[in-house]
Design goal:
This protein is mainly α and 438 residues long. The chain has helices at 11-20, 22-33, 53-60, 77-80, 90-100, 107-127, 134-151, 157-171, 176-183, 193-217, 225-231, 242-273, 275-286, 299-311, 344-348, 364-367, 388-405, and strands spanning 36-39, 47-50, 67-68, 131-133, 322-323, 327-329, 332-334, 340-342, 407-410, 419-422, 425-428, 433-437. The protein is built from 17 helices and 12 strands. Helix 1 (11-20) packs across helix 2 (22-33) and helix 8 runs antiparallel to helix 10 (193-217). The chain binds protoporphyrin IX containing FE (HEM).
Length: 438
């Protein structure tokens, strides 16, 4: 059994390249090795990046019982805890997933529409006439939204505490250099930023346990996700423990707002940089009946969101797929237990699927339908992102609120805006700023 080719660069240097310039790392390897290549990083077992839709289909389209995922996501363990949906496998995963999917889908989305609109409107109004950091404002909107949906928490004292501590915790490992502590075990020391991260995480935990306790005391539970999790029972009639609840809450909070905020920041940047896209979008919005229920019937708005997530996917890899038995990928016989990562970024940038792949051209999504293995910003199969519909819904409502009730311009900056590491995701450069007007 052989693994696909790998770069001869020493593993420590490869890891450093990945930490400081993940996009450059992927592109350099793709240019050299193409559809399948192996990665050898210091401290990690070798794994494979999968960059062709046919092979992606073999992994994401397969029966999920043939693969594990959570077992390979060890990096996330200190961030999210052992019981996070992202870290579970098998029956435990399926059971939790079944529980967590409905609140983020279907009619439930409609009920959040007005809430998201009000949150966005209030913040844009507060910032009107000022220059703001785009990601930070988008993050405030997405965090407030997810806190409402997950905890049923409105802006108030506990909300402010969670917002402050969670944001501080994220920042301790966000920048490319600080994120190094996530990947390099010997940086995980009390005297590095990792120590600070653990301290903030403990403070966040205290708040989450207090929120769980307060919710357990309530006579009648609400329709928020925490209430749903508290009342859930497994097939043996067991309720979730506080630790299980905490891990799932933190997962939803982190996965649910960081990603959406970065996607929105890219959207605003790209719309501003492409006046013809902006004009076309504004024309579509002008003809819209202003009803939340019809937002998903705006094809160009949808295409703008899709194209943004194609060009700049926030998660550049899916979670790993680990075959339980030997599998054949192209010319390679891959041993059971090998970590295989479909690479969202590289597939989305393939010129044979997306002509002029570096161009922002939402129309491509109106001209052609892409398969779930050519376009998969939310991963796929039995592990597809449970928040995909929710994130798109939120993106559309925030964009519509800004474009119909206000106006904005990206502030010109001599330093280019580039995809930059932010913890384990990739976001626009942190200096992206905009000016909000009416
Ligand atoms: C633009 C925003 C988002 C992007 C780009 C994104 C992307 C992803 C990706 C690529 C995966 C891995 C899927 C796979 O391995 O096949 C994932 C999983 C996940 N996402 Fe998202 N996500 C976003 C928003 C959200 C939101 C809003 C939530 C929560 C409400 C969420 C919760 C999760 C969870 C819990 C998983 C794990 C699913 C599982 O393992 O079964 N995400 N997401």
């Amino acid at each position: 059994m052989t693994l696909p080719p790998h770069s001869p660069t020493p593993p420590a240097l490869q890891l450093w390249h990945w930490i400081t310039d993940p996009i450059g790392y992927l592109e350099a390897n793709f240019r050299r090795y193409g559809d399948l290549f192996s990665v050898r990083w210091q401290f990690f077992q070798p794994f494979v990046l999968v960059n062709h839709p046919d092979y992606v289909q073999q992994l994401l389209g397969a029966d999920p019982r043939h693969f594990d995922t959570g077992a390979g996501s060890t990096l996330l363990r200190p961030l999210l805890g052992d019981y996070s949906l992202l870290l579970l496998d098998g029956e435990a995963h399926q059971q939790q997933r079944k529980l967590l999917l409905p609140p983020f889908h279907g009619d439930r989305l409609l009920t959040y529409g007005g809430v998201i609109q009000a949150i966005a409107h209030t913040l844009f109004l507060a910032y009107r006439g000022t220059v703001v950091n785009v990601r930070q404002v988008m993050q405030r909107i997405s965090l407030t939204t997810i806190l409402r949906v997950v905890f049923g928490l409105a802006v108030g004292e506990r909300y402010s505490q969670v917002e402050k501590l969670l944001t501080q915790m994220i920042e301790t490992v966000a920048s490319p250099l600080k994120a190094a502590a996530i990947f390099i075990p010997w940086l995980q020391q009390p005297w590095t930023n990792w120590g600070e991260f653990l301290e903030k995480r403990r403070a966040v935990d205290r708040l989450l346990f207090a929120a769980i306790n307060a919710k357990r005391q309530q006579q009648t539970l609400g329709s928020d996700v925490l209430s749903l999790l508290i009342s859930a029972r497994d097939k043996d009639g067991q309720a979730m423990t506080d630790q299980e609840l905490r891990d799932q809450l933190l997962t939803l909070l982190l996965a649910g707002h960081e990603t959406t905020a970065s996607a929105l920041a890219w959207c605003l940047y790209l719309i501003d940089r492409h006046p013809s896209v902006k004009t076309k979008l504004l024309q579509e919005i002008k003809a819209w009946d202003n009803q939340i229920a019809t937002i998903n019937q705006l094809p160009y708005l949808h295409a703008v969101c899709q194209e943004t997530l194609r060009l700049y996917p926030i998660a550049i890899l899916t979670q790993p797929r680990i075959p339980r038995q030997t599998i054949q990928l192209g010319d390679y016989t891959i041993a059971a237990g090998t970590l295989l990562f479909p690479c969202i970024y590289l597939v989305h940038r393939r010129p044979d699927i997306y002509p002029s792949p570096a161009e922002f051209r939402p129309d491509r999504f109106l001209e052609r339908q892409y398969s779930s293995y050519e376009y998969f910003p939310f991963g796929g199969g039995g592990r597809r992102c449970i928040g995909a519909a929710f994130a798109l819904w939120e993106m559309k409502i925030v964009l519509l609120t800004l474009l119909t009730e206000f106006s904005y311009r990206i502030v010109p900056d001599p330093t280019p805006i580039k995809p930059t590491r932010r913890g384990i995701t990739v976001a626009p450069s942190s200096h992206l700023r905009m000016y909000i007007t009416t």
